[in-house]
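Let's do one together. I've listed all components of the complex below, 667 residues spread over two lines.
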Amino acid sequence: MKTTAIARIGAHPLDEYLRTDRLPHIWCPGCGLGMILGTVLRAIDKSRLDIDRTTIVSGIGCTGRAAGYVKLDSFHVTHGRALPFATGLKLANPNLKVVVFSGDGDLAAIGGNHLIHAARRNIDMTVICVNNFIYGMTGGQLGPTTPEMGRTTTSRKGNTEKPFNIPYLVGAAGATYVARWTTAHVRQMERTFIEALQKKGFSLVEVISPCPTYYGRMNEQATGLDQMRYYRYNSVVKHFANLADVDISLDGQIIVGKFIDIDRPYLPAPKGENGK
Amino acid sequence: MGKKVGMEVSLAIAEAAKMANTDVVAAYPITPQTHIVERLAELVANGELDAEYIPVESEHSAMSACLGAVATGARTFTATAGQGLELMHEVLYVASAMRLPVIMSVANRALSAPLNVWGDQSDLMAVRDTGWIQIICENGQDAYDNTLCAFRIGEDKRVLLPVMVHVDGFYLTHVIEPIEIPEQDKVNHFLPPFSYPLPLDPDKPLTMGAFAPPILFSEAKKAQEVNLRAAKPIILECWAEFAKIFGRQYKPIEQYRTEGAKILLLTLGSFGETAMAAVDKLRDAGQSVGLLKLRLWRPFPFEELRQTVSGAELLIVVDRALSFGGPGGPAFSEIRSALYSEKKRPRILGFVGGLGGRDLMVAEFEGMVKRALEMKPSGAEQEFEMYGVRE
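Okay, and this is what the predicted structure of the assembly comes out as:
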């Protein structure tokens, strides 16, 4: 942490990374997004990344708002298109460190096609997928990750569709680094973000995050604290778990940890490898 | 008589789709439309509506799923807004060309960038040429009534075209209005069950939307154009029948205090009611001002427009969308073009305002009339202004 920031009375140590004029943010009390954004910024700070070459791209939704709060080059793109936009950025300027910070609805539903293709092509970028099991911004509708029997405003009697297991999906598509934590694992999350930021290739960290306003309230975890307690008592750390087994159910275990860390050729290819 | 209830307009639209006994709803959440489909999902879940609710993964999929549903002969409804309508864009053309009457509410919203979820009609204008029948609503009752009418018009065997019912996002979707909800048996009487003449049926196989080489394509498009224009008398017939049963008469262009008016304002959608108040004030002040409210956007009501403006000296068209680098607001441009061949036509000026949720109040409409009277004829390119913009 930079002492200059800490020394300023009343200032937050991460202020230099935030557009403080845009605060307060719009996230609800009990939402996990503040914690996750703070952790990403600490990880960027500790990784000593050149912030003039670090960009954050996000799509639409509650998580998507993050791009507007960070004092980095940031892009708030159309719904679902954070990954193709980030692909363009990275391939046109391989010197950039590209971080995609978006939600499960944006990345796995409307942008689901891009998620598997970015992983398949192993584009060198870090994706932070905040999963709150629901479309929060529009008022709590069924999403691609809503657990079976999870209640939402468009599945009042409980979801009957099988949700995506995101680590399994991107792992199968070819991602070289995949991890999952919850907002009850801030320290582990920070270490993982630092590792993911250094990884060459497509890295994805799924962060399970509370949405008490919609998901929690409709699924017997009415407050942010209830959801955090659930994560604390039901999370099981299993590094390199069999990804077919890391499905999330309505009231079962949440398997967390680092699941994949492999190396394979990535894009953009390092200089000299493809004749450049 | 039906029951008048205080109801959020989005919920009233959902109620209309429910009372129409919709079979399939496929939708994706987007502000400011979401309450409509959320309510329909709830009605399906609690058994009040026997329908399939498909929570698709994007608007492109929503419209595609709707096409599939209609192709089997199911009564199909969806709703979207702004960016969602744009994501549906390519499928919209397919719906009209394949004569698949999907009924859709559009909660009109600005288009990115910058990201803006509030109301304007940029989305409406961007889908102008998709071949859909398009009705623009002024208030909640209008939205309920015309959602019902949309099913009857679109599914009519002489029409078989998809219909968009436009309601201004937030200005209409999120307000609570007194809305008369009719008895179900009257709705059943007004709206016969949907019977699609050529549904996909394994016993009688057919191919839809197949490839058309240059030798066929123009003929297919001509047929579509003839079909859409021919829908107008059927729309009028539907509105006449609606008036007979429910007592409310809709017209392609509504007139308000136009008797002998020298100056006419023309608005689309929820601007109408604000402009009515402005017209009242101007009339009280002795000015000869009236108001036209354009309800039927496609097929365009050329005759009605020519008749209603024939006595005016000045016509002021207020657009809630901008055609960048073009001749002015899209409605202004179309209206001016529609009147070009008239021997006697008013001078036509355009204003673009109320973008991305910016309010235009009564005083602003009065201001536009004042400003229009000051504007000197200065050649076609300067005949419109963006109103109320900080320079």
